[in-house]
Amino acid sequence: MTYYSSEMLRLDNLPEDVLEEILTNLSYDEIAKNRIVCKQFDRICKKLLNRGFNLMEKYHGQCLRSVKSQLPRRESERRSHPLSRHCDILTAIETRISMLSMTFIKYVDLNLCCFIPGKVIDEILRILKQISFTTTPPRPHEILQELRDISSMAMEHFDEKILPDLKHSICASVSNVSSYDMPSTSLKIAHHSGSGSSVLSHGFSRDRLHQIFKKIYSRTRRNKTSVVSVKGQIGKVKQRMKRQGLQIQLQSAKLQEQAKKITEQDTQIAEMRKHLEEWEQKIGDLTAELSRAREDDSIDGCKRKHIDVIGRESDSGNSKEFQAKKRKLIIERKSSTDAKDVKFKIFMSSLLAEESSD
Q: Residue 51: helix, strand or coil by DSSP?
């Protein structure tokens, strides 16, 4: 049997990746409450809370875009649409997220704190899942009542209890802002017990520090406005890309139609060529038959002339030899379908029959 000491069973002895994986199974409210365990838990829980806020914001954006894409363009038609209540709830949540971001994210970006109210993240995720899987969600003022209460309480608590301590810690850690017109050497605040005023070792007073922090705040605001403008430009570019993608799809569809028509025309041309070759073959056969028929007619004409000559000679000479040749030529003569030839053949056959009978 294996025994483990109490030091080996402690959670803070685990690697940070393993501990982070364990804490992800908890709700964000429980993660926020576990920050008080130790410094390691505080560091990991801060990272998980900030990540949870970003993931929740992205998930809300996806839900809002998917709902808006299904709504009609007309405002009058949207009110009677089944997803109108979903859109109202998501819009109200977007307002709450922007208010929370204005309160916390400025100090989260400066690494002075994390997104403290984990219960707010849990409530927003619960509402988003509820409206995603239901066709008829409750009314906005009913489903958002708890979110309004806890988010307002969180922002008031931050402004009243946490923000003064953060400002004091900013004043204490002024040496970390050397990039904003501060000297590169470290500055230390010396407290004089007699006057009660604090003066820097390099001659910087509280007024000077106040001016420096005003500059920091003004630059931060300018950076935010520039970021907003850049986001707007990125949105316009995305819309242009979307329109161009639609145009490309239309052009590709037209190209497919043209390719289909070209294939059909190629098949038709091939069939026409086949028919043309057949007709050319038929015409060649007809011309050959016509030439043979003409040759046969010429041969028949020559034989007729020959028979006539022989007949005239036989009539003049009255010899039996010419009569025999005439009969032989008549018998050897090719058959013809001409009416005159048929009559001539009948006449000659009858004449021969009479002579044979005599």
A: helix
Q: Where are any strands of DSSP class E within the chain?
A: 189-191, 198-200
For residue 67, give both structure tokens.
């709902």
Cβ–Cβ < 8 Å for 145, 123:
no
Distance (Å, whole) CA 146 – CA 136: 19
Burial of 40 (0-12, 13-18, 19+ CB in 10 A): middle
C-alpha to C-alpha distance for 277 and 287, rounded to whole angstroms: 15
SS (H, E, C) 279-343: HHHHHHHHHHHHHHHHHHHHHHHHHHHHHHHHHHHHHHHCCHHHHHHHHHHHHHCCCCCCHHHHH
Phi, psi (deg, nearest 5) at residue 200 = -75, 155
Where do we find the tokens 């006449």? 347
Query: Strand, helix or coil at 272?
Result: helix
| Distance, CA of 244 to chain centre | 12
β-bridge partners, 92: none
The ranges assigned to domains in the chain are 11-176, 269-357
Give the 3-state secondary structure of residue 199.
strand
Distance, in Å, from the CA atom of 203 to the CA atom of 320, rounded to the nearest integer, reads 164
Neighbours of 110 (CB within 10 A): 14
| CA-closest candidate to residue 65, choices 299, 241, 284, 239 | 239
Q: Digits of tens for pLDDT over the chain (358 positions)?
A: 444 444 445 676 778 888 888 888 889 989 988 888 888 888 889 999 999 999 999 999 888 888 888 878 877 677 778 787 888 888 889 998 989 888 888 888 888 888 888 899 999 999 888 888 887 788 888 888 898 999 999 999 988 888 888 877 776 655 444 444 444 444 444 444 333 444 444 445 667 777 777 778 778 878 888 888 888 889 889 888 988 988 898 998 899 999 999 999 999 999 998 888 889 888 888 888 888 888 877 776 666 666 666 556 555 555 566 566 566 555 555 555 667 667 777 777 777 777 666 6
State if pTM tops 0.70: no
Q: Is 203 left (phi over 0), alpha (psi -120 to 50) or beta?
A: left
